[in-house]
Amino acid sequence: MNGSPDSSNVIVRFAPSPTGRLHVGNARAALFNFLFARKNSGKFMLRMDDTDDARSTAEFAAAIEEDLAWLGLTHDIFARQSERLAAYEAAAEKLKADGRLYPAYESAAELDRRRKRQHARGLPPVYDRAALKLTDEDRAALEADGRRPHWRFKLDHEHTTFEDMIQGHVEVDGASLSDPVLIREDGRFLYTLPSIVDDIDFQISHVIRGSDHITNTGVQIQIIRALGAEPPAFAHYSLLNGPEGKPLSKRDDAERFSLRALREAGYEAMALNALLARLGTPEPVEPCLSLETLAETFDISSLGRSDIRFDPADLTRVNAACLHLMPYAQAQPRLAALGADLGEAFWDAVKPNLVLFHDAAEWARIVEGPVEPVIEDSDFAAAAAAALPPEPWDQATWSLWTGAVKQATGRKGKALFMPLRLALTGLPHGPELKNLLPLIGREQAKARLGGLTA
Ligand code: GLU
């Protein structure tokens, strides 16, 4: 099924290997698939590519589910490859019976020597298919010698083409590639065949993944056809690099930008989603609070073809912008959990100053006290205290009061406002005082202007 999506049949998958923690690059893969499914009223599948039982762990699989839940990327279909080995065996048997999967006995060292010889002669390092020339007796002798075969798929030496939704027309020349190993000596499946069998069995309509898989796709289309199926549509997006332009798979950046690290640092999942949905597109990043909104405007074909960088400064900026949009009802349970739920007026007063949600706790402390006031001129502070109007206070109180202080002291501008801010909050910056002052209240304001920690 190539070309435009048939909205009733869209099924896409995110297929991580549970051999490590998800980082922002993986989150992008999951998000693109999720948004594409939502936009097209399709289904989103989570598939654990866990056939490598030496490296896959149940802990990593659980951590992946936890990270996806944090992002809000809920799946409609779930599968674990380790539970589907019989289906892969059956596919392998069919390919063997059709002469497309053949045993080869070269050791890694032998293959390496051969590649070096090819290199010295200026030839491409393509497997020479020596195993195809083995007779039954040769194979029996090798096996009697204790050798176990690995199994290679016999590629057709032709050009495989596909229309990629991002890359456009792509051609992969089968003759330039080694016949891929599908099954290892120890009988374990490598990634390729299980992935294909699952894509067929779960009727995946669109494979959306990184551009590092483009050549694989040429190979996979051949195997899909050899299994009697039709290839899905493909979209290969350019990869996300770290801030220094290095691949995110490098250990330090993968750790630094793991979803767990970002979550623990206090970033909003929606800020990350909003940023990742637009990085690498010509569209500006729009802060937003719902995946539905992101899905409506998501257009996979707007993704560009050059590699892009993840800059944590961008995330910080989008995070602040998302918080500025957040209504009190949404913030309230989290404020309560921080011990910082001082009501809607408080949230509205402080949210324009938040970079991370938990910064609200600091402003709650400043409203409730104790605050150590900073007083540079106690005569001025005393004059200001004397001019405090009687309660009840509201947002008009600030200008009423500062007007009176200006009259009484002759100060204006920064010389008027900064000492008041320092006395009331102990800090030279912060939310607008017209909003904070009524929350601080007359008694505490008076005490702070008098130099008391209150
Ligand atoms: N497990 C594969 C990977 O993480 C999945 C690639 C794919 O989407 O086919 O690279």
Kindly summarize this structure in a few lines.
This protein is mostly helical. The chain has 20 helices and twelve strands.
* Tally of DSSP helical segments: 20
Q: Indicate the proportion of strand residues.
A: 5-15%
User: What small molecules does the structure contain?
Assistant: glutamic acid
Low-confidence sequence ranges = none
Please identify the top-level CATH class of the largest domain. Answer: Alpha Beta
Integer average pLDDT: 95
Protein structure class? mainly alpha
N/C terminus separation:
69 Å
What does this structure look like?
It is a single chain. With 454 residues, the protein is mostly helical. It folds into five domains: 11-80 and 192-240, 3-Layer(aba) Sandwich (Rossmann fold); 86-183, Glutamyl-tRNA Synthetase, Domain 3 (Glutamyl-tRNA Synthetase, domain 3, Alpha-Beta Complex), CATH 3.90.800.10; 254-325, Orthogonal Bundle (Glutamyl-tRNA Synthetase, domain 2); 328-368; 378-449, Arc Repressor Mutant, subunit A, CATH 1.10.10. 46% of the residues lie in helices and 11% in strands. The strands form five sheets. The chain has a three-stranded parallel beta sheet. The model has no long low-confidence stretch (mean pLDDT 95). Residues 15-17, 49, 191, 195, 209, 213 line the site of glutamic acid.
